[in-house]
Amino acid sequence: MRRSFIVLGVILLLQLLVASGLAQPDKLAGRWEGNVQAPQGERPAVVVFKKEGDTYTGTISGMRGDAELSLKEVKVDGDKVTAQSQIEIPQGSLTIKYNFVLQGETLKGKGEVDFGGQTRSFDFDLKRVGEKAAPGTAPSSQAQPSTPPQTQPQMRSQVPQPQQKQSPDYFAGQWTFKWLGRESPLGPGGSREGVTTFTKTADGKGLESRTEGKSEEGAYQESAVIGFDEQAKSLTFSEQRGKGVKIQSKGDWSSPISIRFTVEPFKVQGKTYQLRRTISIVAAHSFTVTEELSEDGGLFVRLGHAIFTKVTPSPARN
Known about the structure:
It contains two helices and 19 strands. By secondary structure, the protein is mostly beta strands. Strands 9-10-11-12-13-14-15-17-18-19 form a ten-stranded antiparallel beta barrel. The protein is elongated. Residues 17-23 and 131-163 have low confidence and may be disordered.
């Protein structure tokens, strides 16, 4: 009988130990708050991890204002955490890859995205908010934010947002750019970089632009005269490209986040070319340009992609 009680006691003790182990909170699951340092500046960031069985899921915000992105392929290896999320832009889908290091109640790391052949990075510095969530449970809705609720609206208002008003004022000023693409009648292939300056016309309804760039073949210049129709929300471009090709185009700016151009065909050495161009408004001081080219009625193929970053406000006219 005594031996039976001993065996029963051991079994109960083992069950308590197992139950205690299962109840231990997961080191990653829960809510993490802090900030992300992006090319557009510092902004608030929130990451939430959930665990169901052996699988983690989650969300992340701070990459595009307050919008939440789903975290996929979340993996934990010791103190290292990796994950991915997707962002949809007019040109397609972009994958952001995250690498975090988990140290107690802090989670730090980096997000990286390949954007037009160039890598943009985002540095995260996060701290756990509230209690850890046990495996198989969602983070507690009672967790208190790391900042008082009354301060959160002010933080959100500081988050850079894409330009909402369609106006030449958006472009006016000086921008640096990096371009990557292939050779064509419009310019050399490979990488290019330089500065484009947009100056408002005397009537304030249009712009004049001048580009001073460098390619693998040397320095080059481009220029354009740009008109804007406020009522139609459209732009007209009259351009002088790097190899002396003149191009006329019209851009539909009815969407505040993208401008899609219809470009008149042009001829070079007996061949007819058709260009397609999309300008995507990423933020108040960042936009991208994507171009595709068709030769003699053939399929459109990717010509190149550029990222523009604003340096100065609009220069004053003489």
